[in-house]
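User: Quick sanity check before I run a bigger batch. Here is a single chain. Can you write out its predicted 3D structure?
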Amino acid sequence: MFAPLVAAEPDPAATGEPVAVQALALQCFLKLCCSPDFQMLLNQIRGKAVVFTGHSLGGAVAALTALHYLCISSSSSPPAPPVLCVTFGSPLLGNEALSRAILREHWGGNFCHVVSQHDVVPRLLFCSPDAVPAHIIVGMQLQQWPAWTRHTGAVSTVTAHMADTDKDVLRQLIQTHVGAVAVEQKLAASETTGGSPYRPFGTYVLCSPEGAACVDNPTAAVQMLYATFASQSSAGAESPEAAHSCYGELVLKMPHHLLLKRWLRVDDDMPATPNYDDGVSLALEASGIDVMVRAMEASTARHWLKTSKRAGRRPSLNCARLATQLGRVTPCRAQIEWYKALFDAEMGYYDAFKQRRSPRKYTKVNLNRIKLGQFWDRVLSMLDAGQLPHDFHRRAKWVNASRFYQLLVEPLDIADYHRHGHHLTSGSYMTHGRERRYELFDRWWHEKGCTGAGGGITSSMSAASASSRRRSKYAGLTQDPCFWARVEEAREQTESARRERDVAELAMKLEELQEFERYSRELVATKEVSVDVLAPQSSYTLWVEDWNQLKLRAQG
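Assistant: Done. Predicted structure follows.
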């Protein structure tokens, strides 16, 4: 159901925790999934732009539903249209591992959490379960953290029928624990201090009667949730019930605040400040922090708003630097293209590299292959760490560049794999030897909505057959990056079939070879292969000769 999120955490032992979510929200979501009406609605919205929304516990369920929809859409064809989830006064949903997984899948921009300045519900789960008195605590059950599971109830009853003294206690507890989390720079420290494991994800819209401020950095979101809540006084704060049910009014006022021209209140004797700092001050006032009265909270919030702004700019700057670095490694790619053209007419660059023809040229090309692989691995590491724009993997420049690199260089990786005999010791290249970057590049290309080979023999044949546009000449690069791995498997299968004496086994192997023959002929007929595939001494040409001989023997 949430396989991409679970798979996105590469080594749970290294992080110390698996992906976990709030149990009550998960129970409600699972109950919803069992409804025939929900499944019918899910089928109706496939392929359409969708907005999921909910209030309080319903917001957490809406977020789980959006995650479920994103997970099932990530492997669909064509790719799913935009998905947006907007929650109002929703409690935190999951732990740091969930936040990292969403970041790694580049789904953070799909979630927007609207939080009122005085609402305790979005901040409640920052409290340690043992810190809240038993007569105040409500049923927030967290999967993987049994301390919560002894309580039952609903999030919407957090503050219902609560004595005024208890409300003050709860407000003070939340302020203390959110502040403690805000101070922690290493989120894992909560495990040793007994703190809450919950962490935010997505964009937070912090609302007040004065307007709203947006924060999309998880650490800055924690800081701002604390600063905006700490800026209220017990005497002046609205009741928890009113704060949790005010979102309809906030939404109605939001267009007015967007159109309202705001003026910054300053003292006459204060020195002039840069426009950027004035903008931060206006954002603080919009989030409910009075910069003139709450100096300490304003100072902390100002710092984290600036940090969030810098963090928001940094991915774009990193992307620009990578574009420069891509230009610097272009000569490596050009050297491999020159090497390919050198052997196109004789045996193709795949077989030339596999046999180490012209050792000096081989050495140079191999170094270029390694340099290019290191560059793209560095790109993916930055992407995994959230250091690049969330839509980086959808930008045409990078999708096309990665695809060209893959089509040019992966055949050399396949040749290197087979030259060293790894297919005999470790298994098939496609299942045991393929680098993660190539699988991701396949996914990028698939999400772009491009057709072509590479997704398997059957899907490639159907895509090629359905294509109304035919090439007038052979492709510059074979459009199936794993074509040579399939050729190697076909050659091994042909040799095995030649020695096979069992009739049933022979029939099965011949059927598989016939399927590859149909696939490869379709690629050649549609000119989806490069001319080196048809070179006189290429592995493919040699396989065709062996296969024709085997067919004659089988018919005889």
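The mean pLDDT is 78.

User: Great, the batch can go ahead then.
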